[in-house]
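WP5 quarterly update. Target: Alpha/beta hydrolase. Source organism: Ferrimonas lipolytica. Length: 179 aa.
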Amino acid sequence: MILYLHGFDATSPGNHQKVLQLKMIDDDVRMINYSTVHPRHDMQHLLNEVTKQLNYSDDKNPIIVGVGLGGYWAERIGFLCKLRSVQFNPNLWPHTNMVGKIDRPEEYEDIADKCAKDFRKLNQSRSLVILSRNDEVLDITEIAATLAPFYDVVWDEQQPHKFPKISAHLSRIDAFRNA
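Structure tokens (predicted):
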């Protein structure tokens, strides 16, 4: 089972395309919707939904995949639910770069404090990070520097921020999930 978390643009048709691409490595892909604008509510909602989906599945190697803001959540929810995660161009600092787009962006700082201290160290090697050198939204160099000490980082030379074509990375995702 693959749990898919969309980015800030929840209604983008690209989300459906990514789900279809992920189905090439697993027929059971479940998109979990969340508001994107209420961080504290989103965290509780995602924890509840992921737990529910895990209870409805007998998959021995479920994985959570997120793009952009969904990558932020995939890392954290994956850690809390003991799932491997894949982050495409994760937005690691929504409290600074989404001001004016979301309600109460400061809640992201509070959420960071709620996770275990040094959670990335505890989650070492349990996430795969795929970054686009052509990301027009985020500072990918800073994201790579933050995550590389803990996770494998893979570079994509062609995709933009929303990563419409993830198919070039499917075999790597499948191998990571089954490792």
